[in-house]
Amino acid sequence: MAEEDHRTAPLGLSEDPAERLRWHRLTARHGDRLNAIMDEYGWPTADRFGADAARAAWLIAQHADRQLDVQRRAVRLLEAAAADGRASARDLAFLRDRTLVNEGREQIFGTQIGGVRDGAPVPWPIEDPAGLDARRAAAGIEPFAAYTARHTPGA
């Protein structure tokens, strides 16, 4: 699933509505499959299923943008796994932010970029911007300025 997700991800940004629809259908199918996996096994951690499977599960949850129930459930399960040291705090931060943005709420870690203004990435709204880099550091994420510099077109 992860390979197909990576290969077809550009369709989600296509100007062609048919290509975007193909992407939405693919991510929905993958989200449904992840939901079934979570039903049977809980969060697929690297210690039980291997690093590739754990990363694929995270990617599928990250892209389940039209299935908030799947994203919310994945956040809860990933949170428990991260608390036990069986999952990455970084992955949890990215998925939590993605889910919050999809709910129309402020993100916590500033991982989700909403667009580009004057050639610079602009994040979706962030809760408590003054404490952002401290939260990012605690989750193992680079400072916000370094992150946005990497995502600046032409940088």
The number of E-state strands comes to 2
Largest sheet: 2 strands, antiparallel
Kindly state the percentage of residues in helix. 55-70%
Count of the domains: 2
Spatial strand arrangement across the major sheet: 1-2
Class per helix and strand makeup: mainly alpha
Structural commentary:
The structure is a single chain. The protein is mainly alpha-helical. It folds into 2 domains: about 1-105; about 105-155, no CATH class. The chain is about 60% helix and about 5% strand. It has a two-stranded antiparallel sheet with strand order 1-2. Helix 5 runs antiparallel to helix 6. The longest helix has 25 residues, at about 15-40. The two termini are about 30 Å apart.
Short key terms for the protein model shown above:
mainly alpha; 2 domains; two-stranded antiparallel ribbon; DUF6624
Q: How are the secondary structure elements laid out?
A:
Blueprint: H1 2-8, H2 17-41, H3 46-49, H4 51-62, H5 68-83, H6 89-102, E1 113-117, E2 120-123, H7 132-138, H8 144-150
Antiparallel strand pairs: 1-2
Helix pairs in contact: 2-5, 5-6
